[in-house]
Amino acid sequence: MGILFDAIADWFREMLVDGITANFAGMFDEVNQKAGDIAGQVGQTPAGWNAGVFNLIRNLGETAVIPIAGMILTFVLCHELITMVTEKNNLADFDTFNIFKWIFKTFAATYILTHTFDIVTGVFALAQQAVNRSAGAISGSLDIDLALTDLEARLMAMGTGELLGLYLESSILGLAMNAISLCVFLIIHGRMIEIYLTCSVAPIPLSTMANREWGQIGNNYLKSLFALAFQGFLIMVCVAIYAALLQTVTAGTDIHAALWGLAGYSLLLCFTLFKTGSLSKGLFGAH
User: Fold this and answer.
1) End-to-end CA distance of the chain
2) CA–CA dist 56, 73 (Å, integer)
3) What string of H, E and C letters represents the secondary structure of the chain?
4) In contact, 232 and 124? CB cutoff 8 Å
5) 43 and 132 in contact (C-beta within 8 Å)?
6) Distance CA 183, CA 181 (A)
7) Which residues of 2-33 are buried (b: 16+ CB within 10 A; e: fewer)?
8) Which pLDDT tens digit goes with each residue over 57-68?
9) Cα–Cα distance between 131 and 181 in angstroms, integer?
10) How far is Cα 83 from Cα 19, in angstroms, rounded to an integer?
11) Closest CA to 36 of 239, 263, 276, 277
12) pLDDT per residue over 179-219, tens digit each?
């Protein structure tokens, strides 16, 4: 009878070891895959990420937004012309060179309005270079298997109670890692949706840049655009730090500590990715 109980106990322990090993193998795969794919996601321009959506946004902007922006530009230029003429004692002390300045402003403002989406694409192409160059810093460094070597042999040396606790612990953390993976997905794709929404109204704020007073609208829009573009670079920095921290985790004599350490770093990655948006806007002075 004792042999039978020993056989059942060994079978149960082997089942727990296989389950724990499977949990460890798959726990971080999805998060690390999402982190590894971030370079490919944030390193693309809006047109490159989804050409169909960008063409839709561009068509909407050209057909629905640019006519409104044209009326705003007309009002701004007329207001500036009237102000320029009347502020010098009704032409009694008027410098004719101001007319040439107004003509140049009109040409520049019209050119900006008609090339709005070229400007938007150029901003993200500039940020794309920084993101693509930083991608090489984390290439191939998101493998956490090195941190948990000889896992199966060490699990076999544990008691049944400890294995059962570790199995439950790894299962719960596996669910948490799936939630973190979902958060990473939402952050990356949510940023792209925000970019498309910001680009859709680009002609309106850019139409105000010719005027000294109204130009603050256009200037703040450009700051927001640069903040969104270089948020991708900050995201890459977060991933590079995450990759470096993963390599510092070793199982040592405490697998539980290693498990929670890896989970903690993954949660930290999620938290820092959420902060990149506000941090980028703060750095570029956008509000």
Assistant:
1) 75
2) 24
3) CHHHHHHHHHHHHHHHHHHHHHHHHHHCHHHHHHHHHHHHHHCCCHHHHCHHHHHHHHHHHHHHHHHHHHHHHHHHHHHHHHHHHHCCCCCCCCCCHHHHHHHHHHHHHHHHHHCHHHHHHHHHHHHHHHHHHHHCCCCCCCCCHHHHCCHHHHHHCCCHHHHHHHHHHHHHHHHHHHHHHHHHHHHHHHHHHHHHHHHHCCHHHHCCCCCCCCHHHHHHHHHHHHHHHHHHHHHHHHHHHHHHHHCCCCCCCCHHHHHHHHHHHHHHHHHHHHHHHHHHHHHCCCC
4) no
5) yes
6) 5
7) eeeeeeeeeeebeebbebbeebbeebbebbbe
8) 989 888 889 999
9) 21
10) 77
11) 239
12) 877 888 888 889 999 999 999 999 999 888 877 778 788 88
Q: Which residue has the tokens 């010098």?
A: 88
Evaluate whether 34 touches 184 at the Cβ level (below 8 Å): yes
How far apart are alpha carbons 103 and 214 in whole angstroms? 18
- The model's pTM is 0.80
Residue with tokens 């009109």: 106
Residues in the chain: 287
Per-residue confidence at 40, pLDDT binned at 50, 70, 90?
Answer: confident
**Which of 214, 182, 171, 181 has its CA nearest to residue 72?**
214
Structure tokens at 96: 């004719």
